[in-house]
Amino acid sequence: xxxRQNPEPTRLPDFGNLGVMLRCLLAVNLLxxxxxxxxxAELSRLPQxxxxxxxxxxxxxIACVVLFYAFAKRLAALPYLAALTAVEAASALVAAxxxxxxxxxxxxxxxxxxxxxxxxxxxxVVLFYFDLRNxxxxxxxxxxxxxxxxxxxxxxxxxxxxxxxxxxxxSDPRRAEAALEELSDLFRVxxxxxxSLVTLGEEFALCRQYLELEHLxxxxxxxxxxxxxxxxxxxxxxxxxxQPLLENAVYHGxxxxxxxxxxxxxxxxxxxxxxxxxxxxxxxxxxxxSGNRMALENIRExxxxxxxxxxxxxTAAADGLFSVNIRLPYRITGEAx
Amino acid sequence: xxxxxxxxxxVDDEAPARARMKSLLADLASELPNxxxxxxxxxxxxxxxxxxxxxxxxxxDIRMPRxxxxxxxxxxxxxEHPPSVIFTTAYDQYxxxxxxxxxxxxxxxxxxxxxxxxxxxxxRRAALPPRETLEKLGSEARRHLSISERGRILLVPxxxxxxLKAELKYVTARTSAREFLLDESLTHLEQEFAARFVRVHRNxxxxxxxxxxxxxxxxxxGEAHWLVLLAGLPDKLPVSRRQWPTVKAAFAxxxx
Lengths: 337, 256
Fold this sequence. Notes:
The structure holds two protein chains of two kinds. Chain A has two domains: about 20-135, no CATH class; about 140-330, Heat Shock Protein 90. Chain A is built from eleven helices and seven strands. Chain A has helices at about 20-40, 45-70, 70-75, 80-100, 110-135, 140-150, 155-170, 175-190, 200-220, 245-255, 290-305, and strands at about 200, 220-225, 235, 260-270, 275-280, 310-320, 320-330. In chain A, helix 6 runs antiparallel to helix 11 (about 290-305) and helix 8 (about 175-190) packs across helix 9. Chain A starts with 17 loop residues before the first helix and ends in an 8-residue tail after the last strand. Helices cover about 30% and strands about 35% of the residues of chain B. Chain B contains eight helices and 15 strands. Chain B starts with 5 loop residues before the first strand and ends with a helix. The mean pLDDT of chain B is about 90. The interface between A and B is medium-sized, with 22 and 20 residues.
């Protein structure tokens, strides 16, 4: 699954995504509100009008959202024009059906055809909104942003590591060799065009390599606890989602610590969700540090680009520990988003 | 070994970084006679080492746990014959900017032998950067105050100080164990440690977390005023009328 997965210029939104569903509900309700405003010259009648209109709009709207949710994968598999037609037809049909069932003849807004047209129009406006939004986050734009977000070279880590390698090169050439190999692996990923998702297992492996390098520098001062057995390794995540967080944990939690300090990585699957928690000793200032905040913002933004509202990143500083908690939907390769 | 042999102290929290510096010094030994006087993993260890070991030049890393390089050099000012200092850093954008701004020399790691040679030659004759400059270089408040006692540097962890009181020419720092005479101004200390201490009187700063409560007392002029009660000490410190609202607010903030 990649940001660039789509050869066509446009595509339908992913109706299986919670964020998309919420946006649909919101957009149609705003439309209804606009219609109510347009129909009324008198403000005093407005609340009543809104209530009446809502009673008409909500049932078919919710039915449509549920319907599209159920067929999300099939819709995504269709070519754009076919999918568009299907969504339009379904919206019109559902609107007409509900109208025929719920509205007694002769009541205001009567007329099945009119209801069908309203349904189709509402769907068109919503799809137009998603198309605009898609363009704003178009593959080119999103790719450029992802590049800018991931391809940062971290000078503190690079120069300290190089200095550490120079420090052991005479006494322990093998260790120096291994460290340079790890460093080059790490920079290969850092400088790659990180457009597609990687598996969580790959990200963990990268984190281990990074921590191995930090061990060279910090020795016993850095302790790491892994608790990831309850987590599927095939889950798809944005590349470099965890490594920058670990780098922060080492910089703020381990380097200033007078005694050996432990960084913990916990991950597990809970239903359809993956939960990941990183903790490190808190010495104050990490929550405010601009570099730390930048890395967090960066990862939060990338999670949003990949998962919209379905992923969450939260931080907390309490009881002498700084923790970052990530929740994201459990998806594996080959599954449409 | 002759009198020209440079005695060098290496201060860095990372063992490989110290190893690198030692091998460079060994490489330079034929051109620039030098001897490793010792190595330390932070400022506190370096000060302890300097008590017994005469050192000409100290190579000091900036970012270290317990006591960073800048703070170490601030304390060195209390020594009768402090070593010259060369700061080293791998990468610290902000520190480097401050160093450039204040014209203080530093070396970036990884260091080349030739650069180290030049820096050692220069440092041999150089004095310590002045205190005011060091203050500007250090982004954080010191973690220790220092007193020189008979040529030794005595460290008082700021976290253990309950209150600071100005008396005549000196400022007294009180910990639960004893008192120390400092050669610093109260105003200055108030600025540096604003997060930790609150001024209760024209001549007194109290650690926020040491305040246990308040007591009302009749003063000499018959007017009532407040006294600060301390956790762990029987001393009661008068609060001036002017400072009372601030002190009360600070205490309420702590309790909450």
